[in-house]
C-alpha cells in the first residue's frame, strides 16, 4: 500500500517540476510587461499653483509615456515621450510641463481650465500597455474672494458717505429755508402790528 502512494508523490513532484520549468521558460521567452502605480489619484489645487501628477511605472523594455487631459472643454494631448529619448510636448503646454523619468509630469501655474481627468498611458515596445487616471480639482484662491469683499465694502462705504453728505446738505438747506420763512413771517407780523398802531 505504501509503494503506490510513493509513486503518486513522485509523479506529482515530476509534473510540478516540469510545469515550473515550462512556466519559467515561457516567462523568459515572453518579453516583459508593464505595470503602473498612481500614488495620488485625486489632487486638489488652487489657481496659479504648481502640481505634480505623480506615477511610477515598471517595465523590462523601452516604454513610451503619453499624458492626456480630458475636461468639459474637450480632450487635449499634453506630452508624449520615450524613456531615454525624445520628448514631444503639445504647444498648449509648451512652457508649463516638466517630464520625469518615472513617468510623472509637473504642471505649472494651473488655472480653472486645468481641472479634469488626466490619463497616462505607458506603452511597452512589445505591445503591453498600462493605464492610470488622476482627477484634478482647481479652486479659486481665497484671498481673491476676500479682495472682492473688501472692494465691495469700500464701495458701499463710499456710497454711504456720499448719502450722509447729501442728507446733511439737505438738512442744512431746510434749516436755512425755515429761518428765512420765519424771518419773513416775523417781519410781516411786525409790520402789521406797526400798521395797527399807526391806525389807532
TrEMBL record:
<dbReference type="InterPro" id="IPR036179">
    <property type="entry name" value="Ig-like_dom_sf"/>
</dbReference>
<dbReference type="InterPro" id="IPR013783">
    <property type="entry name" value="Ig-like_fold"/>
</dbReference>
<feature type="transmembrane region" description="Helical">
    <location>
        <begin position="12"/>
        <end position="29"/>
    </location>
</feature>
<dbReference type="GO" id="GO:0030425">
    <property type="term" value="C:dendrite"/>
</dbReference>
<dbReference type="GO" id="GO:1904891">
    <property type="term" value="P:positive regulation of excitatory synapse assembly"/>
</dbReference>
<keyword id="KW-1133">Transmembrane helix</keyword>
<keyword id="KW-0472">Membrane</keyword>
<protein>
    <submittedName>
        <fullName>VSTM5 protein</fullName>
    </submittedName>
</protein>
<keyword id="KW-0325">Glycoprotein</keyword>
<feature type="transmembrane region" description="Helical">
    <location>
        <begin position="146"/>
        <end position="170"/>
    </location>
</feature>
<keyword id="KW-0812">Transmembrane</keyword>
<dbReference type="GO" id="GO:0046847">
    <property type="term" value="P:filopodium assembly"/>
</dbReference>
<dbReference type="InterPro" id="IPR015631">
    <property type="entry name" value="CD2/SLAM_rcpt"/>
</dbReference>
<dbReference type="GO" id="GO:0030424">
    <property type="term" value="C:axon"/>
</dbReference>
<dbReference type="GO" id="GO:0005886">
    <property type="term" value="C:plasma membrane"/>
</dbReference>
<keyword id="KW-0732">Signal</keyword>
Amino acid at each position: 500500500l505504501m509503494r503506490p502512494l510513493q509513486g503518486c508523490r513522485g509523479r506529482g513532484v515530476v509534473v510540478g517540476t516540469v510545469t515550473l520549468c515550462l512556466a519559467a521558460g515561457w516567462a523568459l521567452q515572453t518579453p516583459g510587461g508593464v505595470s503602473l502605480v498612481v500614488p495620488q489619484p485625486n489632487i486638489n489645487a488652487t489657481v496659479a499653483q504648481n502640481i505634480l501628477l505623480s506615477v511610477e511605472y515598471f517595465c523590462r523594455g523601452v516604454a513610451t509615456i503619453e499624458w492626456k487631459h480630458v475636461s468639459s472643454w474637450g480632450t487635449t494631448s499634453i506630452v508624449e515621450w520615450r524613456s531615454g529619448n525624445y520628448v514631444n510636448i503639445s504647444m498648449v503646454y509648451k512652457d508649463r510641463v516638466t517630464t520625469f523619468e518615472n513617468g510623472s509630469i509637473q504642471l505649472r501655474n494651473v488655472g480653472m481650465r486645468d481641472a479634469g481627468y488626466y490619463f497616462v498611458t505607458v506603452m511597452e515596445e512589445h505591445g503591453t500597455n498600462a493605464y492610470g487616471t488622476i482627477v484634478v480639482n482647481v479652486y479659486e484662491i481665497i484671498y481673491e474672494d476676500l479682495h472682492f469683499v473688501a472692494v465691495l465694502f469700500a464701495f458701499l462705504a463710499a456710497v454711504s458717505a456720499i448719502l450722509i453728505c447729501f442728507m446733511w446738505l439737505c438738512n442744512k438747506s431746510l434749516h436755512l429755508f425755515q429761518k428765512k420763512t420765519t424771518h419773513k413771517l416775523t417781519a410781516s407780523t411786525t409790520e402789521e402790528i406797526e400798521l395797527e398802531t399807526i391806525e389807532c
